[in-house]
């Protein structure tokens, strides 16, 4: 199955419009003005296209009794659960067209079959969404940076959207040195990494550190073992993303940042959290670098995230999926125009709270939080299927 | 905000004054290493006095817990109902049902019956007893001290666990699950005034997570036996931290189901099974390992599996008025995600159907075939049509060790045949929908006797030699 030529042409037309919106819409939400109207119109047209181009989505929309032609508010666009990317071909053409890239969610809580799959037909939209946000929030001074990245290199993990993203940033910003310092199994290459940190410190190059929270925990372990600490040159910055997912012990974020500051000499005010998901081509960022006066410099637990102007986030009551009052906690639902050729409206299982100006804060589970009940969870069942260890023998 | 609930009770007479911290609505005790050691010394020291009371007498006196918690006039009963909804995350009617069903399991007659069913000669817990035809004497012993760990479990689990331990004469340090703090604390209060020997042998202390600081690590190091209720990760974690000579009794997470034969799928009987199924799903909001999530419904009856799914949906809506659900945000989020997947399944042209109200209070999913998946809680019932119950026996061995209870509804003699095949395929308990969420105190918990799992046996062969083998029949003279 693939899209008809006419539908493909509509997709191309919309792609140009989304790119043009990305190039012109103001980031400051208070300055949106006409762009808000333009966003709504574009979002509705993208939705109508997706309801035709992604067959299973079209049927879902029809089953819900929604007529795409009659919708007038982007908030009414039916969202799809992010979890559904594990099982359904949520892509234009229904999976019958060649994808430019196929990204998969990490398989740490499910089997290979249970991993989310995001087929991306057009990487140019991804890059057009990524670069302005990354530049604004990580490299507003737009200078050459020495990348020290704690993940596998893109060629080793072509299905990771995070690593693809870091590959693009490395290519765009690199000062010609640095690179990726983990093997395909995410194990850090200690000697090379310590060497790169020492080189950067000695040469005065501004460093762009990037990695996951658990990657940084491993880095701290490595530094502690080696008895090393660095004072990376002024102008260095650090991006942190993702959680721990059982790959290391969990460390509270403010503790992690403080210890990274001590070990690397990068001030906590120059550390930026990125929140993204495989199912979505756009990202959310903390604004510590772009807006140091926002009061976001020191305590990471007080910070909030902001997305690009082509993304909107709603906070929904998990009980009935209605919008919560401002300031109330709820599920995050995003609408991302960069997801033109898959599904724009995505319902996550993450909880968050809106702060102001379209910003929100993601509320992670408290470390050590215990699930209620003694009934087997879906993730445990996935694990049992994957490992074949369905029978943890009991007494 | 209300005064934080004190989530710990030290043994009666313990001269320990740990620092107290407040986390959300709980006050936590954080003993130092030295205090932890003294606490454990005290528990171990209380064992002799506890065991000096005969087991039958212990059962009677421990039953004060049930007597008081079951009595609506008793202040402890009232406090339980005040605290349980917030602490266990249940609506008041659901909490009341839980207390009404569980407290009678902790009364003197229930505990005495438990004792007798587990040890037909309960005197083996008090001293050596001759073993017929063996020529020896045996006895069952508790441990100097045991650590019991609940991990976010259903309210009530902790009380059953601590009573089992005290019943076999083992002092116990109980770390209750986050949702099960209230009842063990009140049980400790009940014993404090009526059974000092048991009260001195019991400590209930909640801590978040697996570690538990000095007390958690010392408790683990010194326990003669460790009982853990929890997820696969938790069980694995305890297994790796225990010394090889310490027995671990692990009640890991499991799933329960129901199987309905075509014979019961007609008229009023079908409706009654749907009513019972709805009550079983609603009991303590489907959080137990005995709560049914999957319903295998046979085709060929007057009521089709899909129609029965619709009946179940109606009944769940009816139960909602009686026993309102109170899903947490996490559970609701999971329910919404699963509903989204089911909608897409239907959009893909499968026969899967979502039967659910706009809110996440309950969900019925109809599927046209067997699938052991998608257990998400929050009163979510997956009704799966099967051509014949025989199908189950092909699929179930793959989930051996995960399947807990199967409520089986079909008439004899087929019932016995299916029951036999289900247990061969790994089910630990065959039951009815009415009884499914409320196992008796003497149930073979995950396949083992609940008290027998907590003792070690010792023998004395110094008596008469055993009679010769083959002498078990009537004596023959020549």
Which oligomeric state applies? heterodimer
Radius of gyration of chain B: 24 Å
The Rg value of chain A, from CA coordinates, equals 21 Å
What is the approximate shape of chain B? globular
Note down, in words, how this protein is organized:
The complex is a heterodimer of chains A (395) and B (478). Helix content of chain A is 32%, strand content 18%. Chain A has 395 residues and is an alpha/beta fold. In chain A, strand 7, helix 8 and strand 8 form a beta-alpha-beta unit. The radius of gyration of chain A is 21 Å and the shape is globular. Chain A has a seven-stranded mixed sheet with strand order 5-4-6-7-8-9-10, with helices on both faces. In chain A, strands 1, 11, 12, 13 and 14 form a five-stranded mixed sheet that branches. In chain A, helix 1 (5-24) runs antiparallel to helix 2, helix 2 (34-53) packs across helix 3 and helix 7 packs across helix 8. The longest helix of chain A has 20 residues, at 5-24. Chain A has helices spanning 5-24, 34-53, 55-63, 123-138, 161-173, 190-203, 213-226, 253-264, 378-387, and strands at residues 80-81, 101-104, 117-120, 145-149, 174-180, 207-212, 237-241, 271-275, 284-286, 305-306, 311-316, 329-336, 345-354, 360-363. Chain A has nine helices and 14 strands. Chain B is of the alpha/beta class and 478 residues long. Chain B contains 17 helices and 19 strands. A seven-stranded mixed sheet of chain B has the order 14-15-16-13-12-17-18, sandwiched between helices. A six-stranded mixed sheet of chain B has the order 2-9-8-7-10-11, with helices on both faces. In chain B, helix 13 links the parallel strand 12 and strand 13. Chain B is globular.
């Amino acid at each position: 199955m693939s899209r008809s030529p006419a539908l493909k042409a509509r997709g191309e037309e919309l792609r140009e419009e989304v790119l043009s919106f990305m190039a012109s819409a103001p980031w400051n939400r208070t300055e949106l003005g006409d762009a808000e109207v333009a966003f709504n119109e574009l979002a509705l047209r993208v939705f109508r296209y997706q309801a035709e181009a992604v067959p299973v989505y079209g049927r879902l929309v029809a089953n819900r009794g929604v007529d795409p032609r009659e919708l007038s508010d982007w908030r009414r666009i039916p969202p799809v659960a992010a979890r559904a990317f594990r099982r359904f071909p949520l892509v234009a053409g229904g999976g019958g067209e060649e994808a430019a890239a196929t990204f998969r969610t990490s398989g740490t809580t499910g089997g290979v079959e249970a991993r989310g799959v995001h087929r991306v037909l057009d990487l140019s939209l991804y890059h057009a969404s990524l670069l302005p946000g990354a530049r604004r929030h990580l490299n507003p001074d737009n200078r050459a940076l020495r990348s020290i990245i704690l993940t596998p290199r893109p060629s080793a993990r072509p299905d990771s959207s995070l690593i693809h993203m870091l590959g693009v940033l490395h290519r765009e910003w690199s000062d010609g040195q640095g690179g990726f310092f983990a093997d395909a199994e995410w194990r850090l290459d200690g000697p090379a990494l310590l060497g790169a940190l020492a080189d950067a410190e000695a040469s005065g190059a501004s460093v762009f550190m990037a990695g996951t929270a658990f990657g940084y925990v491993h880095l701290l372990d490595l530094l502690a073992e080696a008895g090393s600490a660095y004072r990376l040159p002024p102008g260095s910055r650090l991006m942190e993303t993702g959680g721990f997912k059982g790959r290391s012990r969990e460390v509270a974020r403010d503790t992690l940042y403080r210890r990274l500051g001590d070990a690397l000499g990068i001030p906590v005010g120059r550390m930026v959290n990125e929140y993204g998901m495989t199912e979505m081509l756009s990202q959310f960022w903390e604004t510590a670098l772009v807006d140091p006066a926002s009061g976001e410099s020191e305590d990471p637990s007080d910070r909030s995230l902001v997305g690009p102007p082509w993304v909107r986030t709603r906070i929904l009551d998990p009980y009935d999926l209605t919008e919560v009052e401002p300031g109330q906690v709820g599920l995050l639902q995003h609408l991302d125009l960069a997801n033109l050729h898959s599904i724009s409206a995505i319902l996550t299982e993450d909880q968050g709270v809106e702060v102001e100006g379209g910003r929100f804060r993601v509320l992670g589970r408290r470390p050590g939080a215990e699930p209620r009940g003694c009934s087997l969870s879906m993730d445990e069942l996935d694990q049992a299927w994957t490992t074949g260890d369905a029978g943890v023998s009991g007494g | 905000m209300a005064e934080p609930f004190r989530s710990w009770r030290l043994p009666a007479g313990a001269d320990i004054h740990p620092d107290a911290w407040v986390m959300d609505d709980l006050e936590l005790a954080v003993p130092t290493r030295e205090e932890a050691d003294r606490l454990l010394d005290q528990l171990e020291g209380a064992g002799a006095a506890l065991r000096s009371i005969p087991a039958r007498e212990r059962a009677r006196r421990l039953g004060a817990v049930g007597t008081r918690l079951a009595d609506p006039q008793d202040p402890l009963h009232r406090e339980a109902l005040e605290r349980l909804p917030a602490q266990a995350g249940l609506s008041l009617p659901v909490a009341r049902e839980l207390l009404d069903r569980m407290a009678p399991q902790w009364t003197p007659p229930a505990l005495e019956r438990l004792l007798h069913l587990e040890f037909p000669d309960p005197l083996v817990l008090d001293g050596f007893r001759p073993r017929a035809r063996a020529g020896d004497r045996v006895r069952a012993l508790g441990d100097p001290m045991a650590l019991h760990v609940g991990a976010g479990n259903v309210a009530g689990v902790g009380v059953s666990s601590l009573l089992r331990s005290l019943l076999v004469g083992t002092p116990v340090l109980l770390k209750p699950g986050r949702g099960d703090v209230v009842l063990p604390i009140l049980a400790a209060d009940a014993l404090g005034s009526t059974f000092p020997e048991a009260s001195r042998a019991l400590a209930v202390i909640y801590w978040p997570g697996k570690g538990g600081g000095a007390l958690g690590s010392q408790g683990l190091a010194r326990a003669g036996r460790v009982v853990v209720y929890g997820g696969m990760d938790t069980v694995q974690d305890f297994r790796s931290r225990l010394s090889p000579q310490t027995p671990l009794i692990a009640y890991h997470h499991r799933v329960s189901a129901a199987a309905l034969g075509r014979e019961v799928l007609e008229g009023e009987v079908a409706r009654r099974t749907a009513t019972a199924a709805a009550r079983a799903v609603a009991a303590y909001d489907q959080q137990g390992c005995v709560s049914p999530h999957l319903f295998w419904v046979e085709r060929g009856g007057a009521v089709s599996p899909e129609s029965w799914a619709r009946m179940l949906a109606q009944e769940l809506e009816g139960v909602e008025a009686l026993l309102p659900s109170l899903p947490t945000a996490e559970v609701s989020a999971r329910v919404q995600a699963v509903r989204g997947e089911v909608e897409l399944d239907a959009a893909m042209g499968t026969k899967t159907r979502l039967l659910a109200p706009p809110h996440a209070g309950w969900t019925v999913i109809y599927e046209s075939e067997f699938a052991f998946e998608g257990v998400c809680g929050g009163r979510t019932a997956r009704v799966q049509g099967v051509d014949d119950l025989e199908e189950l026996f092909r699929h179930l061995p793959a989930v051996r060790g995960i399947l807990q209870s199967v409520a089986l509804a079909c008439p004899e003699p087929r019932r016995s045949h299916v029951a036999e095949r289900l247990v061969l395929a790994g089910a630990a308990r065959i039951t009815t929908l009415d009884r499914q969420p409320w196992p008796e105190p003497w149930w073979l918990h995950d396949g083992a006797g609940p008290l027998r799992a907590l003792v070690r046996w010792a023998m004395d062969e110094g008596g008469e030699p055993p009679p010769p083998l083959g002498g078990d029949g009537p004596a023959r003279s020549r």
